[in-house]
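Methods — Computational structure assignment.
A single polypeptide chain was analysed. Its primary sequence is given first, followed by the predicted tertiary structure written as structure tokens.
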Amino acid sequence: MMELFDEENAYTALADQWENYGTLNYIEDERRESLADSEVERSELLRQIFTMIRKTLTEQETDILCAYYGLQTKKLTVKKIAEKHLLSESRVLKIVRESERKLQFSDEAIEIWKYLYRR
């Protein structure tokens, strides 16, 4: 598509850009505020999750689950976790499954669901 250039069209295009400039700044400010709010929410959610994990699981279960999923630590393979805890790989996987089940039915999990789905 070929566009014709004349001064009037160029002036109108510049005026439109300038008019939208303020709107774009407003959108960017809103976006920054939204990102800051979401970071606060994410931080609060992580705090609640780790509180739940520490209250519900043993120290070994916590360590294994956090290493398995990479929560506040580097994610490790099942083999590395097994070596670290002197367990078999199948035992590590069993602990992960049992830990997930414990967390799923804990009272703190209900609080996290309430937090996630609040209105």
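Note: The radius of gyration is 26 Å.
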